[in-house]
Structure formats: C-alpha cells, structure tokens
Design brief:
Blueprint: E1 6-9, E2 20-23, E3 27-31, E4 37-44, H1 64-73, H2 77-85, E5 100-107, E6 110-119, E7 124-131, E8 134-142, E9 149-155, E10 158-166, E11 173-179, E12 182-190, E13 194-195, E14 206-207, E15 224-235, E16 238-247, H3 260-275, H4 279-294, E17 298-302, H5 306-329, E18 355-356, H6 360-364, H7 366-370, H8 378-390, H9 392-399, E19 409-410, H10 423-426, H11 431-445, H12 450-469, E20 471-473, E21 479-481, E22 491-492, E23 498-499, H13 506-522, H14 536-546, H15 593-608, H16 615-627, H17 631-644, E24 653-655, E25 663-665, H18 668-681, E26 682-683, E27 689-691, E28 701-708, E29 714-720, E30 723-730, E31 735-741, E32 748-753, E33 763-766, E34 772-778, E35 783-789
Parallel strand pairs: 27-31
Antiparallel strand pairs: 1-6, 2-3, 3-4, 4-5, 5-10, 6-7, 7-8, 8-9, 9-16, 11-12, 12-15, 13-14, 15-16, 17-28, 18-19, 20-21, 22-23, 24-25, 26-27, 28-29, 29-30, 30-35, 31-34, 32-35, 33-34
Amino acid sequence: MSSTNELELDKPASGFINAFPLGNGWLGATIHGRPRRERIDVNVDTFWSGGPLGEPSRQAAEGTLECLRAAIARADFATAEELSKALQGPGFSDSYQPLGWLDWEHANAGDGEYRRVLDLESATATTSYHTAAGAVAVTSFVSSVTGVIVLEASGEGVSEGRLAFHTDHPGVSIRTLDEAEGQWLTATGRAPAHVTPNYVEDDNPVRYAMDAPDENGRVDRGMGFALVAVAQRTGPDSVRLISSAVSGFRGYGARPSADAAALASEAEERVRAAARRKTCDLLAEHTTDHRKYYKRSSLSISGDDRLQRERAARSERLFNFGRYLLISSSRPGTQAANLQGIWNTDVRPGWSCNYTTNINLQMNYWPAEVTGLSDMVEPLTELIIDLAKTGQPIAKQYYQAAGAAIHHNTDLWRFGTPVLGEPAYANWPSALMWLAAHLWERHKFDPSSPGARTKAKKVYDSVTRFALDMLSEDSDGKLVFSPSTSPEHYFVLAQGGTAAVSAGSSIDQELVHETLQRYIALNASEEADNPDPESLKDRATAALVKLRLPSIGSAGELLEWTDERQPGEPGHRHLSHLYGVYPGNRITRSKAPAEFEAARTALRLRLDAGSGYTGWSQSWVLCLAARLGDSSLAAKALDTLADELCSESLLDLHPHPEWPGGYIFQIDGNFGAVAGMAEMLVQSHDDRITLLPALPPDWTKGTATGLRTRGGHIIDLDWNNGHLTGCTILAGKSGPLAIDIRVGQKDVIEIHDEGKAPLKNKRMEATPDQGQKIEWNAEKGHKYAVKLLN
C-alpha cells in the first residue's frame, strides 16, 4: 500500500467483514467491490426493531432488595445470586436492523487486473477491473451534504446499469419504473416488532407486527422504512447509482411511522435532487465536508528497517481508519455509534448490535476528544441526557433510589432495565455513572463552553443521587456500592460454584469515587457555606471520605473485588478493576504510586491467563499500557490487534465460533486503538501534559499533529530516536500550563511564545519517572514552541 490514508486490496470482499464501510453518520453503505455487479448493504442509524417503551415494571416481591443486601452483608453470595434474578426483566433491548442490499449491474463480465481502494481522507471507495471492452472504475461515496449514496462506473465496458433490491425482511414491496432519467426502484417495508438477542434461545426470535398503521401512519412497534434508488447513464462511458433511505423513527418516546408512501416520498426527494447534479460536484462537496474533520489530526511514523517501517505504516493506517470510522458513523444530529457503528447485515445481529454500556459504547468515543473530533460526541451526549431521564423510574422501582440508573444494554428506545439472564452481566446498574464521564471529559477538553459544563452538571446531579442511595456501610464502617457486580465476571465460592453479586466491586467503587469527586468539582463555585447538612454537595463530600477504595492483594495486584476471591476466569476479557488507570485517572504514578504498580501487576496476571482475545479487550490493554508507560506492551497490543483481530479491511473482530467465518465485527476495538495510540504520544491528567509517555521502540521517528488535551490545548510534536525533537502547543485557556518531558542529562529546554525570545518565568522540577515538569503562565490563543537544545 502506497499511503496510510488508504486501504488497498486485490480481490473483492468475501463477506461483510471484509467489505469497505462508507457512511455520513446516519446513512451507511457497505461496498463489496464486486466486478460487473456490485453489492451495497444499506443501513439507516434509526432503523431498529421494537417501539417506544412504557414505564419499567419491577417484577420482584416487596423486600427483595433488602433481602439481597442482607445476604451480601453476611457473605451469602449464593443466595444473593438467586435474589438478583428477581430484580431482572421484563425483557431485552431491541436490535439494530439492516434494510437489505442493492445489486447494481453496471458492466459486462470482469477479468484481469483488479484493485479496490478505500481512501480515508476523501471517504471514497474505488474498484478497478477490466472487461472485454476495456477498463472500468467504480467510485463510491455517501454524502452528508445531500444524504445520498452515490456510485459511478466509468470506462469502455460499462452497461446501462440495472438495479435489484434484496432484503431478509418479509412483506417488502419493491417497485421499479423506467423514466427518462433512468431506472427507478422503490422498496418499502417494516422492521420486526421484536428481535430476541442472539445469545437467548427462542423458537420464534424474530417477530413482525401485522397491524395496519393508524390514520396518521403510526404504529406501536415495527417501524417502516423506504429505500429509493435510480440507475442512470451520465455519459457515453459512465453510469451511476444514487440511493437514499429513511426510517419511520420519530423520537424515542413517539410511535414510529409505517406510512410507506410518505417515507418513500421523503427518500425520493433526496435522490431526485441529487440526480439533477453532476457527480463531480456531489463528490467535491462530499470530500470537502469529510476532510474538514479528517484533517484535524495526523500521525506519521517511520522505522529504521523494513519490518519497522511496515509495522509503523500499519499503526498509522489503524489510527487513520479509526478516525475515518468515527466521522462516518457519528455526526451531530445522528444517533450514537452502536456496536458496529452504523453497518450491519443481520436481522438478528450479534448482541443485538445495540449499545452495550459496560465498556463498548464508551470505548466508541475514547478517541474523539484527543483527536479533535469532539463534534462526533454530540450524539452520545444526547443519548446520555435521554438516559438520565428514562433511567429515573428504573432507579426508583428497582432500587428505591433517587437519580437515574441504566444497566448493561440500551437501544434506540432508551431501554435500561436489567435483562433476563445471568447476574454477571444483567445486574450491573452503574452504566450511567460511566457514561457521565464523557460529559465531564467534554467539559474538560473545552473548558470555555458553558453548554458542556451545564450538561455535565445536570447529569452528574442525577448519577450522584443514585450513587449515594446505593451506598451501604461494610463491617469496617466503609461505604460500598450494593448490590454490585464486576461486568460479566464472576468469582468462585468457597463451598463450590460461582457467583457475581456482592458489594463494592472495584469498578463500582471507582465510578462512585469519580462521580462524587466530579459532582463536587462541578459545583465548587456554588455557595460555600450551605447551612443544610443534607445538601447533595455535603452528602457527596461526607461519603467521599468514607468510601472504600480498591485493595491490593497478596501478589501485589489490584483486586477486582473487596477481598482476594478466586476469579471465575483468570483471563477474563473485561479489565473493569483497572478503570482507575484508564479510562479513569485516579490511579497515576504521581498520585497513587502503590496502586499504580498494583494495577500493572493485575494487568500482567490477566494477560498471562489469556486476556485480550477480543479486539476491544486488546484495545483496552493498549490504552492501559500507554497509561502505565509500558511502551513494549503497547507495541505488542498494537501488533496483536493488527495481525490477529482485524479483518482484511481492518474492521475489528470479536471471535465467535457460531458466526459465519468465526468472527463478529465490533467497531469499539477500532476506536480503542486510536485512543491508545494518542495516549502513547500525549497524556493530560494530573494537571499536566505528558509528551511521549509510551513511545514504542519501533517508532524511531515520527510526527503527530492536532492532538488535543484537557484544558483545550492543541499539540503538534515530532521525535527522533525515541526523544522529543520539537513541540508546539496552542493554548486553549489562560493560566498555568505544565508539561512533562523525559530529557537527556545535557538537554536544555526553552519555551518560546509565538517565536519570541525564550520565556524567563518558567518553573521546572523533576518528576517521579525521571522527567522534567516545566510550567508557565499561558495565554489563551498563544502558540508556544518547546525547544530542546543540546
């Protein structure tokens, strides 16, 4: 491959996981690169099974929660496990749906040379091949500006371009019409009323509603969809396909539309508007729109020998591809990126292709702030704000608690109750505390935005109320979250068997600590002398002092539970007990050195036992390695991701023996990889910016631009032979600005403001990791150059 802004392959996709994904945030197209007859899988981000939810219903008898907490307090975990199942139900989240796929016959039989390329910078896919008549090239893109999918085939071998649509949904109406402008195709149908998750046995897992829409075209469940496409000749040697689609979604609390005529009219209007324009103009405005996001950051790496250069190029490509995917699957005004972004071909997809909130949804947005894609967080922000509303009756009915709670799954309809199943995954009510962290980060990365702070305050008020009501005193008088699980993991019982439910799992304690601390910080400017001892801020402050934090075990490891229990799976894929290292930042080398080393030991024990066998899990390893300053482990994690856990088209994979090909695409690992690489280069916690904290040995020379930090600063830097050679910092706010650099004994550091003489008033001190901390008073909007002189 000539450019790390491109993916190049020499054969068509053998299946969905090897195809090229295109998208504009809400409209997705998966391009297979087939000669003569292209396949285009089509998705719309709001096309899900199900319908609006009613009030959650608590199935358990009165007193169940009190009995559960009492069983936990006396360490009767087997009983606690059974009681937890009574706090589940009544069902499951719904599933993200495909519309179907278009077959577009655009040329005669192809043979000879073949090439397909996904250009990440322009967000276009190109397929090149030969026919008996000559060479053919097909260019594909999905425009955010016009809301359409466009494919144009050019060359001597192109035909008139015939269309067909296929779908796995029954009862779909497909109509074709030949007009002067070309062949038109319109497909209308409905989503399932319900789809049971793939991991649940069900004799009838996909169910469709048979009701007719009311006089307004609305239904209770099973929204409608419409897809419209036109195939037309655009020149003597060129033909094109233009398509768009809409769903009947009208808001998470509103009955959706199944009005086929109205939906088709909406899609057709977009297609006809685009069909009146030249492809070159549509493409030009599309690439301009995409590049304004894509060009915000960059990474360029080189190595000393061929192997190092190949590995460096592979890392660059992963970095660029992950940013491309985020821009393509999450834009202002769209839904948040789900387990597969916006791309899915299965009516009963893996894990419902929903929002899994015990790591996967959060990981989708880890790279956004640090690579300058904060705009793409807006859909997640809106989802979190919605969940803070829909989670209020859940907190009240299931836990008699104030505030709001959701569990490990949500969907388009803002589902949040504990699903039916094993408590290890079902009974985890802490997801909203974790999600709130993204609003905190949005505020920290853009401290001048009053809107970011206001939204964070509102949600933190809700999750703080819930956290406080979930705390109980343990036998030592410390406060622990109860009931509590460590997501999807369980421990071995002394009397045999396993359980997952107890009190004070490490991740829950970390989340409560983080929640209370951040709530207090967000409200620090409020009246300091509040006479009411029951004020939320005073309650949070008092609880923070008594809160139990994770302990260190006899092997020097950070424990997953409150004591040394035998883990049910020593190599478990979740690394939840290390939350305080990443994505949290309570545990750092300078603030908590003992816990920092204990986390390093815990990660090693997990990896020695086989953890990191899924793409997203390995990406979490990468991020943890970067925070721990372990450049060798970070490099190994990157190699594992690229060599073993990515498809031909670099889509992140989750091994699954029951799935075709043995893998399911999960996009979170792609996003986690970008976040991990950014953390290897720049970190910004502990009130300082750390430069090159975990640079891999093979990255001997390189440049990164546009990396963002907390405080709103923008960093460009370069390095050679493992050492920083230059850096500029565009200050995002006025006030103290501190950087941490590892330097040689003979290096002299100078800070220049806008090319002026070196600053005289900088302050320097040694850091615990043998670096230098340099601090000065910055002015917002000024660019500072960091120079190392030998």
